[in-house]
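Bit of a strange request maybe. I'm writing a small parser for structure token strings and I need a real example to test against, not something I typed by hand. Could someone generate the tokens for this chain?
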Amino acid sequence: MTAASKVTYTSANVDLDAFHSQFDDALVRIRSQSGEDHLLFIDGAAVAGSLGPILDTSPIDVRIVLGRFAAAGQAEVDRAVTAAARAQRVWARVPWQERVACLRRAAALVRHRKFDLAALMSLEVGKSRLESMGDAEESADLIDYYCSQMEDAGGFRRTMAAMTPIERNTDVLRPYGVFACISPFNFPLALSAGMSSAALVAGNAVVFKPAEDTPWTGLKLYEIFREAGLPPGVFNYVSGRGSEMGDALWQHPGIDGVVFTGSKDVGLNIYRGLSRGWVKPCLLEMGGKNAALVMESADLDAAAEGVMRSAFGLQNQKCSATSRVYVHRAVAAPFVEKLVRQSKGMKIGDPTERDVLFGPVINERAVARFEQAAAQAGREGKILLGGRRLTEGRLAHGHYVAPTIASVPLSSSLFRDELFVPLLVIGEVPDLATAIGEANKAEYGLTAGIFTRDPAEIDRFFDEIEAGVCYANKRTGATTGAWPGAQPFCGWKGSGSTGKGGCGPYYVAQFMREQSRTVITESGR
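Reply from user aminoacidic:
Good idea to test on real output. This should exercise your parser:
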């Protein structure tokens, strides 16, 4: 593979034979490192956790122990926030050009290690090879993109108008201080790197909590930032359980802001509780219940493939995944037939293998959520594909469930509740207006897609759909595939908090606050 080759979530501009050979080598390296004990890193020093360790197992086969990770409690949170506050005062005074240079070194390290990082994520999350590599590639691109935002804005410093001849006015954006960065399991490198690098390049320090299911990938990010030259204390790695230290982190009085990706319930709890004496920045991306609309004039082959890819990539464990379809009743039967046929063609199994597209869900809680939802779909409608847990042969020791498609009434809560499991529900509609109206009933508004050959329908869809990331006729993924600098990833309604998302041009500025500076240059006499 050349340096110019890249895997994204919708394309693979690579020599696949060379790609798989390098991936195989990386799997050997990562597996050889499994089973070790790992500590926290606070102020540049390894620190033991005060609570019982986290046992990190693979969802592919829970008998595989990837490592044992220290679990932080209140004492370690206090220590990390104190260290971050001390380090941030120095980091904020580092010229922005030097902060950018440091983070660009981190992006280069991600690219240099991308095969090892992708192999690790395949084992730790259950991602397919291409999904894992997309995560690693996006991580590097996010860091570079946010560095470019700082460069393009000249460090967010601007000369303003002078109201009198004797004054000099300047507008600057300055960092808030210490951000808690709380990341999810599904994109354990890209989302962690993106959220934290935006905070860091703006001059903030970070206390980073990876998801409980993905502490090893989080540790690899810490090591990259350290080797890139981030000073001790500017980025602190604090693994732990959400119930034991997540709340202690964002509730800590020394935290000046929070950046979080995860569920709506947890995000709204943070939003409501964060600000006490004054309002603190709270950047939240809180999932989705993303709809694809298939209209009468649609290319049904493209629609079926686009929905299948978005619904079952990473086992639907993407906040952008298609989880519901509103199809025009005139084309419902042929569309469903094509969708089911394409979905049956996916190979299910160990996603570290080169030809497997569909792997396990993340944990037993996800399996239970799937089984409950599949049972509801069977009661309320008709299961068209799947609907059960998979325990045959090599799948017996992992968290495997079947990719599932169900036809249910439009009144079903399965059209509204985020599940984060591979269950796709389909409802028939008479026209575009009904489809848009049904799509907008959900509390979420992250992504949405439409398939139609009618330009007027596309325009109406963009104007009326309540979602921040919208696609028309995207065969490579009906509602998925956003990339830094191409598709800003902004959640509306219950999917976001600020109206300006990651991957977009306004992200870094949200980690800074504005200060107006006026200097009088003469006495005025």
